[in-house]
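Reagents: none. Just compute today. Dihydrolipoyl dehydrogenase 2, chloroplastic.
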Amino acid sequence: MMVVHSAVASNTAFCSSWITTANRRASSERPFGVRIGRFHAERGPEWLGPARRAPRPKAVFRLRSAYDYDLIIIGAGVGGHGAALHARSKGLKTAVLTGGDAGGTCVNRGCVPSKALLAAAGKLRELKSVERLQAMGIAVQGQVAYDRQAVSNHANSLASRVRGNLVQSLRGLGVDVLDARGVLLEPQKVELRKPGEQTGDRRITARDVIIATGSVPAVPPGIQIDGKTVFTSDDALKLEWIPDWIAIIGSGYIGLEFSDVYTALGSEVTFIEAAPKLMPSFDVEISRLAERLLISPRPIDAYTGVFAAKVVPGMPGKTPVRIELVDAETRAPVEVLETDAALVATGRRPFTEGLGIEKLGVQLDRGFVPVDDRMQVLDQKGTPIEHLFCIGDANGKLMLAHAASAQGISVVENIAGNQSYFLRMECIPAACFTHPEISMVGLTEQQARDKAEREQFELGRAVGHFRANSKALAENHAEGIAKVLFRKDTGELLGMHIIGMHAADLIHEAANAMNAGVPIHKLAFSVHTHPTLSEICDEAFKAAAGMAAH
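Predicted 3D structure written out:
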């Protein structure tokens, strides 16, 4: 919405009908003001002298609008935050409904506190790596120990600090942060309700509305959660105690990361995986190497091809958790495990209950909000609902915090008039912050082979090795590879998979190249600082182009 300061309005005449809805947004990118000569502009306001400086405006006059806001965002996680910041940069009057959960899953119960725990676990693991340190001439005297409560406090204080920064950044840019949850009455009308309330006494409207309500842990039937001995990642992040033996149900990102934390802190881990192999969503070659680096050397065993049909909580230090395993295909009983604790890491489900979206003719798919490629909500007939969007975990396209933020930015670009902007979801990277890390973008090798067969092209594959990298050798972390997949005919980059030190940082080279459409034969001529880990990617790119890396 266009803003006219009082100091300017008195000297400038214009007709409000001159600004239409379309060009109001466009004009808001450049604040309205009085044009001055280049000489005055270069000298700055001090050249005018104290007596001629314009006073700070005390009032702001806005053009009339049929809506309370240009944009309402239901949810204040990473996705809602990213959308709100971009909306303000476009001059849109914006409100964010926190639902009493500013920061969402990522800040409070996900990415941020889990990385704090992983950072502590990584330091502890490094200090306990006697042979690795001795090879570098370092000796650690005495026993390496940790303080559980201090580690927990590190994670909690980080989450609190980031949450405060998030809210401050919104308010600092003029976003209305409303501590209420939103219930949709119409595509452009939202009722504000306090947590636990069934009705609200305030309703607000906006030209556009974005749903960004995130997700919660998914708990399969038959599993009883007590938050003490049987818990989800939400409770695990509190690190209230360290079990001697913990079963982790699920071997995806969440399960792998917590296995890294618990084994570093002294626990034994048993994975329970319904798929025939561990890490079923990972590239096969990477998952095999991950088993060698992350599973085999540690106190970890695994059951694959089984379900945890029933999980009964125990009592810490007194009675064990009872886990009944059945065959994933036949449902025949397999074994009964008794462990100290069980972490349920079987994925996440959308948090869309009570949103009221079904009343707008939307049919949820297992709780997910159906959307098109521009994140516009679809009704039961598959028709886009004007002015209503959904981003992040709630739409299920890619349940990653940075994907939610990217989707939010893309929605704002579109509603602000840039219809040419289109988010390429296949170019969004992902990472698992274990030690060593795993990262990926695009297709797995099997998916790429299937695509090559369907579209009749020859698939290329090239690998860079950590053991051939000077920086990795200097750090004494030479385990890992970077694998690139590409079309041989066009050089199109189809995917990249990395396991090794700082893999989560290295993957962006491929992700950005894919998004920009840079072919492999051009990537091969990019220059990398020596010696850096990025040269591992360079080795893979050059090998793909038939060049030698040094």
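The chain has three domains: 69-216+349-423, 230-346, 427-545.
Action item: order primers for follow-up constructs.
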